[in-house]
Specification:
456 residues, pyruvate-formate lyase- activating enzyme, nine-stranded mixed β-sheet
């Protein structure tokens, strides 16, 4: 059985998207008309705000030091005076969107990511959020979460955000091994992780997530196994076990270490299978695409009861048609269109300070895109989907040949009515989703480097 799984992991360890959107970002238009996006947002907000509310994502890009493995949009600085200018611009962007709304926005979900959100002082985070909340209505059952760095998240950070309604926090652990931490420039003692976790629970946070990464330079089985046992000892409610994506052509920090230090494909597969096994043996459930959850967590309940949702923030228990992203590089999803903000701080400031939306790249979905996005979301969240007769020609041409191959490997059961992922297939959700990615299947583009990370 182990040999068979190893064969499957090797066979399906190919570059595929993570499917936080469909179509995926590489297939978006390099330019999006600001007025067209504004009109789309206006129409969708009018349609969905009162009934569903919206999800809000705030991108705070600053970090005091560079983690060389990181692929996020960030700005490295130790000058904390940058906080004021950035907050002022983000609030100006918020005001631009408010001018497109006919009523106060109903905020159902809020996530703060980065960068390092806890780079900002508790006082400034409070100021920023109160200015947003003062012009909004907060849902009766919201989900507010943020990403915290164990080294600089203080008890004051946790208390201030808790007082504003935050109940979920995610800490970037990555790996506790000191040699790995040294080479990725993220020295972070386990004691710091334990301290912030204890604080969060003492204050009253109901869900604590840890991010771990496998495939990092100098990472070996013994070291990662020790990290996992240390992590499990703290019983985080959720664990995200991400595959390291080596993309030095887009993330320049990854050029700072020797590629010979990266685990080879065989070792990386061992790291993944070991981690997955240890999590499930210790009470965690694999809910799909790198995420593990304890049975008491809302994420597990949403998966079990069939109301799990997936968007640019990953898996979530809140299903809203509109996700509004504020801040440099943030992505918005109106349900029928995507828009991404300027990635450069200077360009972002210039747009919003001149009263313009900062969107620069995006995509307007077709009816075909909306149908195939549903297939992909169903599979990633529920492990099954039903086919629509109006897509049958496209399914027969592009998707069914892929499904036949996956069925032969017992990853799925399917017929012309629909599809269900097997227990083995849950390890390959990204691959199954890719069978419905018409943009990828139709693509003939040739690039010097792979666009997507490998599935394992």
């Amino acid at each position: 059985m182990i040999d068979k799984m190893s064969q499957l992991l090797t066979k399906y360890n190919i570059p595929v998207p993570r499917y936080t959107s469909y179509p995926t970002v590489p297939f978006w238009d390099e330019k999006i008309d600001k007025d067209k996006w504004a009109n789309v947002f206006y129409q969708q907000f009018s349609r969905y705000n009162a009934s569903e509310g919206l999800s809000l994502y705030l991108h705070l890009p600053f970090c005091e030091s560079m983690c060389t493995f990181c692929g996020c949009n960030k700005k490295i600085t130790t000058r904390h005076e940058v906080e004021e200018e950035y907050m002022a611009s983000l609030l100006k962007e918020w005001d631009i969107y408010l001018s497109l709304m006919q009523e106060k926005p109903l905020i159902k979900e809020l996530h703060i990511g980065g960068g390092t959100p806890t780079f900002f002082s508790p006082e400034n985070l409070t100021y920023l959020l109160k200015n947003i909340f003062d012009k909004s209505i907060i849902h009766s059952n919201p989900e507010f979460s943020f990403e915290g760095h164990p080294n600089n998240t203080t008890r004051e950070h946790l208390q201030a955000l808790y007082d504003l309604g935050f109940r979920r926090v995610s800490f970037g652990v990555q790996d506790n091994d000191m040699e790995v931490q040294r080479i990725i420039n993220r020295i972070q003692p386990f004691e710091n992780v334990k301290q912030v976790t204890d604080w969060a629970r003492e204050i009253g946070y109901s869900s604590v997530n840890f991010d771990l990464v496998y495939g990092l330079p100098k990472q070996i089985s013994v070291g990662l196994e020790k990290t996992i046992y240390e992590v499990i000892s703290l019983r985080p409610d959720r664990i995200a076990f991400y595959s390291y994506a080596h993309v030095p052509w887009t993330s320049k920090g990854q050029r700072l270490f020797d590629e010979n230090d990266l685990p080879d494909a065989s070792l990386k597969l061992q790291l993944y299978t070991m981690g997955s096994r240890l999590f499930t043996e210790n009470g965690y459930t694999d809910i799909g695409m790198d995420h593990f959850s304890l049975p008491g967590d809302d994420l597990y309940k949403a998966w079990k009861e069939g109301w799990l949702h997936r968007n640019f923030m990953g898996y979530t228990t809140q299903n809203t048609a509109i996700l509004l992203g504020l801040g440099v590089s943030s992505i918005s999803d109106s349900g029928n269109a995507f828009a991404q903000n300027q990635k450069n701080l200077h360009d972002y400031y210039m747009d919003v300070n001149n009263g313009r939306l900062a969107v620069t790249k995006g995509y307007i979905l077709t009816d075909e895109d909306i149908d195939f996005r549903r297939y992909i979301r169903d599979i990633s969240c529920e492990g099954k989907t039903k086919f629509n007769n109006r897509n049958m020609g496209l399914l027969e041409q592009f998707t069914f040949p892929k499904l036949k191959l996956m069925e032969s490997d017992r990853l799925i059961y399917w017929d012309e009515e629909g599809l269900e992922v097997t227990r083995t297939g849950r390890n390959f959700l990204r691959n199954v989703c890719s069978a419905f990615d018409l943009h990828l299947l139709r693509s003939t583009r040739q690039t010097a480097n792979p666009v997507f990370s490998k599935s394992v």
